[in-house]
Amino acid sequence: MRKPDFHLSWSLALNVFLVCLLGAGLNSIPAPFDSAGIAVFGCGAAVYAALRFPPLLSIPMALVISAPIWFSDGSIVGKESLTLLPIVLSFFGYQKSLRQIIKIGGGFWSIVFVPILFLEHALYDTENLNLLLSGVLVTWISGVLGLVSGHFAYLTTHGLRRKLSYEPEKVKLNFLLSYFFAGCFFVASTAVIYLSVSLFQQQQERQIKGYMAQRVAVLQQQLSDFISQHQRVISSTAQTLSGDKRAEQLDARATKQLSIAASLYPNFITFLVTDDSGNITHTYPPNLIENVRAGVLPNVAYRPYFFKAMQSGKPYLSNVFQGRGFGNDQIVAMSAPIKSEDGKPIGIIEGSLSLKSFSIFDELSLNGFSLLIEDQKGEVVYASETLNLRPLSKAPTYPCEPECGNEIQDGPEGKTWLRYKGDIAQANWTVNYYFKHEYLLSSMSSYLLKDLLLLLLLSLLGTITGFLVARMISMPLRRLIRYIANFDPSTNRESKIPHQALHIQELTSVNAEFVKLEQRLLKAFDDLDKTRAKEQQLNVELGELNQSLEARIEEKTHHLESALKSAEAANTAKTQFLANMSHEIRTPMNGIIGSCELMFEHNLPEHIASRAKTISRSATNLLLILDSILDWSKIESGKMGIDNRDTQIHELLHSARELYLYSADIKDIAVDVNIDSSVPSALITDAGKVSQVVNNLLSNAIKFTDEGTITIGAEYRDNHLIIAISDTGIGISEDKLNTIFEKFEQADASTTRYYGGTGLGLAISKGLVELMGGEIQVKSALSEGSTFTFFIPCKEGESSAVKTMSEVATLPENIHVLLAEDNDINAEIVMDMLKGANVRCIRTRNGLDALEAAKKYAFDVIIMDCQMPVMDGVTATSLIRKQGKNKDEVRIIALTANAFEEDRQACLNAGMDAYLSKPIRKRMLFNTVANQLAKS
Ligand code: ADP
């Protein structure tokens, strides 16, 4: 699981601040009711922080949020637990799944913390089980409330976004709804129950306070009455005893009066009568007088009840004090002066009221309420046992006095008490009515416990309801899913539609839609089946048709193949025929032209020379025609190759002009060469083919021009050589412009008659230009002349790479030449040419003889005819290269009438160095021999 990146940004800081503020604020709200547990509401914020932020951030947040809890009352363990809960969750629940968070949070809280909490409460709240249980429950609920609210807040704000960065969590609907229902029930029930408990507690408190106030008022009255009644007894007895002069009369009356008063007011434990000096004269019970006589307490003149009454002449109520002499009871003394007839005090009567007599007021108090009566000195007159204050001890005083109100925080036993007080005007005393706050708490705790148990029950109900609702939704959903999953239109067409229990309208709609879809699908499948059946039928038909078609195609292919074979055979035969014819014609032509050339070297009589020239020109023309036919045959059969080399293009064009200058001169036509400066001196192209095209066009131009000028123009643009031959001749009509490039086509049928020609020249030119990757065009109009333009792609070459040898090279005289030639005429011509240059030459008639000779002698050059009897030239050459005496150095030059490219290639492959085609010309022969010697 990848951890998200946390960047400290302002929005994050604001988030953290708000969460802390909210959590701490909620935790600061005072508990809505008093309990032994901790009721807080802000733990949710800490839980949210633990799930949302990494531990480094969420732990300090948890501490800040929990801080207010530590300022409230309550158990230490509870405070620790509530603080630790989000911290534990932060360590073990951050970035965990929904279920894990619930397990970790709920588990830790209920299984680990609660027992510890329980133990702590068991130590302090032992006397009241309800208080103990309700205290533990209240703290537990605070934690659960925090877990639920924090987790819900996280789920609704960030939990859903988790799918962006993590694997989305898969949760069952049952679980989710149970959780949410239980959570919502829990939170809602908590709110309601807390409110009701709070209200109930407030009401209870109000009632108790009301009761106490009322009770204090009643006590004030009762105590006043009680004191004044008893004072009245003393006063009336004193009055009864006043005015007597004779002591014996007083004796008798006093004794009687005291016993009457004692019988009527038994709260007085003793009475005594004194004379004006404070000496005790009478007592009740009477036997106490013995103590007086024994000198235990003969005089009470120092007692305030004596001298205050004597001085003021009025009844007196003393403070509480420890009685002495007549017993050791704690008492309050009431006295009144006994006056003489003239109204002077002659003694007092005193009654000791036992402090225990105030217990009758306490007995009327309800359980839990305590009574405290203080005298004017602040000493305890009477205190209920629960207050644990002894009479005569100092009554408690509080620092908050006199504005303490009715709630005393640090009251008796160090506990909190409700206290109401009132003054008893009669005695200048104070009556306090106490109620221990704990009693309120314990009286509330059983109610609280019941409510809390109800809360748990409601949450359980929520869980069950959630589960049932989820089941209600998920059952039909699952049934529908199962139905959809089982649906297979190809096999399961009979599956039952799940009608039952689909009470949820949306689901019913989904179901209905699916059923419709299903029906559409079934129909579609039916249609598909039909279409398939049709398709199958169509396929069968198609298959049959295919088979018959295949058979027919096979048959046709067979026919075509055999036709192609026959065509190929015919083509081969034609090529073979042409090769043979070429060879056969060239050999005699070689004789004719060679002989003429040799003849011209001698001084011939003029008429013989003229005849020889005619023979030579006619033979040359014939050779040209032969070459044209051969060229065309080569182009058509695709055997014409390209031989690109560095070519001196200027020289090539000028040579062409030279070649036709004689024919032009005869017709008095000027031939101009106009080469643009853009044309480089050398271009890489097939010189032979370019000059053949130029020659063809030039020859046509001269042929079809009677007067004017012929211009050979050349340009070089965009890596293209553009050559244009313009004339001022007869021109070509527009309708013929397209056909003249066809073979054997002439613009006019009369052309042949008048100008001659084969109709092959332009077709060959076009073929050659296209072979070089170029194009040829014509612009012409009748009687206005024609311009033939062709352009071929070619790169610039090196001008120094080509050396043309327009002159006949001179051969060194000491070289040894072997000529292998079966034709005597041809042999004679070659030998004559070499003899003229004083070169010695040996001749053999076949390849085998040539091989034998080469084995014996080291020749410099072997001129090898190809077609010879016994052993042909190609075989002889390959053997000479293996066995010849001078096998590596000797230069072998082919001399053949075989004018095809493959012939040339066969010669070179056999080890020949150069290739000369018949008819043999002296210049060609000598230049080639010189060239080869120069290379060796
Ligand atoms: P031919 O051997 O007849 O010259 P070509 O293929 O060279 O065959 O020419 C075909 C025809 O094109 C010629 O017969 C002629 O009618 C026409 N032609 C070719 N060049 C020219 C030209 N320069 N002026 C007029 N007509 C021409």
Automatic annotation (TrEMBL):
A GO cellular-component term linked to this record: plasma membrane
Stored Gene3D superfamilies: 1.10.287.130, 3.40.50.2300, Histidine kinase-like ATPase, C-terminal domain, PAS domain
Coiled coil start-end: 528-566
Catalytic activity field: ATP + protein L-histidine = ADP + protein N-phospho-L-histidine
Domain Response regulatory positions: 816-933
A Pfam family reported for this protein in Swiss-Prot or TrEMBL: Response_reg
Enzyme Commission numbers on file: 2.7.13.3
Domain Histidine kinase stretches: 580-796
Chain ranges passing through the membrane: 6-26, 38-70, 101-119, 131-155, 176-197, 452-473
Localization of this protein: Cell membrane
Membrane topology summary: Multi-pass membrane protein
Keyword Phosphoprotein in annotation: yes
Main location (coarse class): membrane
Entry keyword annotation includes Kinase: yes
Enzyme class: transferase
Domain of life from the UniProt record: Bacteria
Gene Ontology MF annotations: histidine phosphotransfer kinase activity; phosphorelay sensor kinase activity
Residues with the 4-aspartylphosphate modification: D865
Keywords from the UniProt entry: Cell membrane, Coiled coil, Kinase, Membrane, Phosphoprotein, Transferase, Transmembrane, Transmembrane helix, Two-component regulatory system
The protein's name in its UniProt record: histidine kinase
Record organism: Alteromonas hispanica
